[in-house]
């Protein structure tokens, strides 16, 4: 941490909740409207620093490291609960800090998997949040293994989703603490070619911070990526019961209940135009990789088409709107999976206008 100082104005602390020891970044006003930022998979709270500092001065900003990431406790993830371990952790932090009892509005911001986490919190604790901002959120029907806008599974055992879908070479480079850009599987290459849209590069000192965020991810069957099960169905692997990527499997995760949440927080959905991670043609989706003949044996588009991730999110939010909720979908040009970092001015304009409304 000493080699990667926080940006001026950001404070680091640890909060002991009844569930785990959570690392928390804070900035802004001592009191006022509260904005909590929730990161995604294999990253950390430090990816939010610039956005936190750019918030209007009357806001109170917080960003947590979720369990198993950054400097928070590496507690095991029970994948059979979907994202509820993470959602319960966030709610426990809010309760411990007595934020729900504050006189000010509480706004939740979730990026990628963090978008699913805050949707789960909204389902389990209706009325807690005044607004949700979803930044390139994962599909409400999980990651991999579904075939249509309603989240219909491709196989009964949800083969093609879960911990076995992560390339083991990437795990090797994480475990080795690889800070180079020498191979396609180094964390630095994944950051710059997958989380960001090339040729975007962060300033060198910030890029090092982001790489360190990836390297802090706790690996193994209990954390990232989790365990797996063999399957007779293509592509031969099915989700296990432990770890982060299994928690995102549609076998255990279904956030379609968000459409019926009441009271209904306003929703801003922001996504990068060139996101290759959460997409209807995702580079991480076995259906799409099979269609491209990158994964052999693909059973075809009738059985296992590319997962329509964006269409699935839109379908759930359209149902939310039909039920009386309000949402806006905004697409940021020339950005990949991280528009708040790649195009900060465009993102902040949309986000701050939304908060002020």
Describe this structure in words.
This protein is α/β, with parallel strands linked by helices and 357 residues long. The protein has a domain of 247 residues: Rossmann fold (3-Layer(aba) Sandwich). The chain is 28% helix and 16% strand. It has 11 helices and 12 strands. An 8-stranded mixed beta sheet has the order 1-2-4-3-5-6-11-12, with helices on both faces. Strands 7-8 form a two-stranded parallel ribbon. It has a two-stranded antiparallel sheet with strand order 9-10. Helix 2 packs across helix 3. The relative contact order is 0.15.
Low-confidence stretches: none
Assign the structural class, choosing from mainly alpha, mainly beta, alpha/beta, alpha+beta, or little secondary structure.
alpha/beta
Count of individual beta strands: 12
Q: Strand fraction band?
A: 15-25%
Q: What's the average pLDDT?
A: 97
Tell me the layout of helices and strands.
Blueprint: E1 11-16, E2 21-28, E3 34-38, H1 49-54, E4 60-64, H2 84-96, E5 106-111, H3 113-124, E6 131-135, H4 168-175, H5 187-195, H6 204-215, E7 219-220, E8 224-225, E9 228-230, E10 237-239, H7 244-247, E11 266-272, H8 286-291, H9 309-322, E12 327-332, H10 339-342, H11 344-356
Parallel strand pairs: 3-4, 3-5, 5-6, 6-11, 7-8, 11-12
Antiparallel strand pairs: 1-2, 2-4, 9-10
List keywords for this structure.
357 residues; alpha/beta; Rossmann fold; 8-stranded mixed beta sheet; 16% strand
Q: Can I get a quick summary?
A:
With 357 residues, this protein is an alpha/beta fold.
